[in-house]
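[step 3/7] inverse_fold.run input=structure_tokens len=454
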């Protein structure tokens, strides 16, 4: 913090342009060097050993919690200071900006220029019953997402990914159950963190930027990245994609910039080839998406507004594409990810319920003789996955049919503005208190913190 604050002060001053640019590059370089050491040094040494056949070894490096988030946050401060878009005179306020605890661990990634005016407002240092009540409501929604929905979905995702090294243990349906359970687990886990951060900050009178806006309702990958981890997408767009030229230098350069940006986004999430493939896959998705938009409008001459059928198909295709990419994000290795995807697309055939064996003559004909088996829908994982379908359906209904927490917050704020002294009703208060108590009663168990390594 001392280092970045000092560099920010220099960059905010009216010094020589070349000197300031050098200071900016040094500042960004040292921030990235520390991030690279803590997060990627072991991965780099492992790959070096594989390539040149050496046996170099580093002691296990302990990763500082939230290093990616506070590093990106301070890099954005340096760039904004260089561009004269922000300036910090108060070191204590800068420390508060970096260490503001609600969003420190899992985001949102905030800009100095959107937080400083709020910290300078003396009203936030006074208790406010409306902010406390509304903040507690949003916090409770996030905690419910994390503890009740995400953690229960983990019970169905984890056994599938843990069994990938056991050849034949995963069936077609169990593979899809694991992939879908993880897709929804990650959604409710991470959006739950963001809701809790927004809710806690709101209790203090601080408004954090939204980070999720129903991303699984997206009709394209382009829209998905405008709804999923919005502040990370904003950072990558403003400080990487646009800096590389964005779409200003032709279609080919635009596609290269998109791919490189998403590749770096994948590397940011973790040190491993699975994260690199995940980022690269989304880069390819975006290239295809932009190409299709061009083809749809200028070559096929379709109507600008999509029909209901096109919207439904686009939403399904987008969700399936995202789910496929999540397999690489979750799997321990490329081999595990490829194995699960192969099973998801019939590489190991389809296992039907054992009671269907009496119909074997109807399905086992010609080339399909070895495609169908009768070892049960979930195979060896029947006891771990028998309730998975119910939870996946429940999660899907929440995702696709209910308003998100930002919409709820906006509705409450609108109602509050129309009735300046309005507090949540007694009925809503009792409901939130009941949900909060129910969530607390479920905290006495091991819970995955998926963003611990980020």
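[step 3/7] decode complete -> sequence:
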């Amino acid at each position: 913090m001392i280092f970045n604050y000092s560099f920010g002060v220099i960059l905010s001053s009216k010094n020589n342009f070349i000197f300031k640019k050098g200071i900016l590059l040094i500042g960004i370089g040292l921030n990235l060097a520390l991030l690279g050491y803590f997060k990627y040094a072991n991965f780099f040494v492992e790959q070096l050993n594989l390539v040149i056949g050496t046996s170099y070894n580093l002691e296990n490096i302990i990763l500082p919690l939230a290093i990616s988030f506070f590093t990106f946050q301070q890099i954005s401060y340096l760039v904004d200071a260089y561009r004269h878009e922000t300036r910090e005179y108060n070191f204590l306020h800068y420390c508060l900006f970096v260490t503001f605890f609600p969003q420190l661990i899992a985001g949102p990634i905030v800009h100095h220029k959107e937080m400083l005016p709020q910290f300078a407002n003396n009203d936030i240092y006074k208790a406010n019953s409306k902010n406390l009540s509304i903040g507690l409501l949003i916090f409770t929604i996030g905690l419910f997402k994390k503890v009740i929905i995400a953690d229960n979905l983990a019970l169905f995702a984890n056994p599938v990914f843990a069994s990938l090294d056991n050849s034949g243990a995963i069936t077609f349906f169990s593979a899809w159950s694991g992939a879908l359970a993880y897709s929804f687990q990650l959604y409710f886990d991470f959006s739950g963190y963001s809701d809790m951060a927004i809710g806690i900050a709101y209790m203090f009178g601080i408004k954090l930027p939204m980070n999720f806006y129903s991303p699984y309702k997206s009709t394209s990958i382009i829209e998905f990245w405008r709804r999923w981890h919005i502040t990370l997408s904003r950072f990558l767009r403003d400080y990487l994609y646009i800096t590389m030229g964005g779409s200003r230098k032709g279609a080919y350069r635009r596609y290269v910039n998109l791919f490189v940006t998403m590749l770096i986004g994948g590397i940011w999430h973790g040190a491993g080839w699975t994260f690199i493939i995940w980022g690269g896959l989304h880069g390819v998705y975006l290239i295809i998406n932009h190409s299709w938009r061009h083809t749809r409008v200028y070559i096929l001459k379709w109507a600008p507004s999509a029909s209901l059928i096109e919207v439904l198909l686009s939403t399904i295709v987008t969700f399936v594409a995202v789910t496929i990419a999540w397999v690489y994000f979750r799997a321990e290795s490329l081999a595990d990810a490829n194995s699960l995807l192969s099973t998801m697309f019939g590489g190991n055939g389809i296992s039907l319920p054992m009671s269907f064996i009496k119909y074997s003559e109807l399905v086992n004909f010609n080339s399909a003789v070895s495609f169908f088996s009768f070892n049960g829908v979930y195979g060896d994982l029947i006891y771990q996955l028998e309730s998975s379908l119910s939870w996946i359906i429940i999660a899907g209904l929440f995702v696709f049919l209910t308003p998100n927490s930002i919409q709820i917050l906006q509705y409450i704020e609108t109602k509050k503005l129309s009735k300046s002294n309005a507090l949540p009703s007694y009925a809503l208060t009792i409901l939130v208190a009941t949900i909060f108590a129910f969530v607390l009663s479920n905290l006495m168990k091991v819970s995955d913190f998926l963003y611990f390594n980020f």
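[step 4/7] annotate
Strands lie at 350-351, 372-373.
Residues 361 and 409 are 57 Å apart (CA to CA).
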